[in-house]
Write a structure and sequence with these properties.
three-stranded antiparallel beta sheet, four-stranded antiparallel beta sheet, 9 helices
Amino acid sequence: MALLEPYLVREELAREAVLIEAGRPIEHLWFPEGGIASVVVDTADHGMTEIGIFGREGFSGIPLLLGATASPHRTFIQVDGHMGLRIAAAPFMAAVDQSATLRTTLLRYVQTFIVQLAHSTVSNAHQRIEARLARWLLMCHDRYDADEIPLTHEFMAMMIAAERSSVTVSLHVLEGAGMIRSRRGRVAILDRNLLEELAGDGYGRSEAEYRAMIAPFGKTDPWIAAS
């Protein structure tokens, strides 16, 4: 932290703020202090599809750590209301070169993000829409301080690679089962246990990986629940 701190600038992370633009050199990295950032693939045939999310547990700019100077994926803020720490790429990489423990910690996070991406692929390929939606709502809930999360239907459709109309139907199903309460632009989590049961194996692996490799994480973490 002593190596990074002189170069960190705290700024507000507004909704739709772009942290990394696809195909452009990565000039800054961001460490969000809250909110939810989306990593998306944008194609001509299908538009934007989310492949991963992170909040205060992660950072933007993984490609730099892995030796690339740009990313084919766009990263932007989907749920705002928080600040973030910005650092230019050059002093960040200099700090990584100076500190083996910093590099190791950041690479451990990369590992947890890879696990998240892998399970997103499996979930989107094999789980029905309601289970995929339950998984992503749990992941958002882990990264947000309140039980009511500002989420639009468009965002949720992108999250689970589904049509907006299908998301609307699935929200009604989850609401009817007492798992959530949905109103325009917001979703309130009412019963995490039921959501986790519905999400099944789609949820929990990357969260467990983070807890094992880095620190407590997630609202179902026993340490966090007790504190």
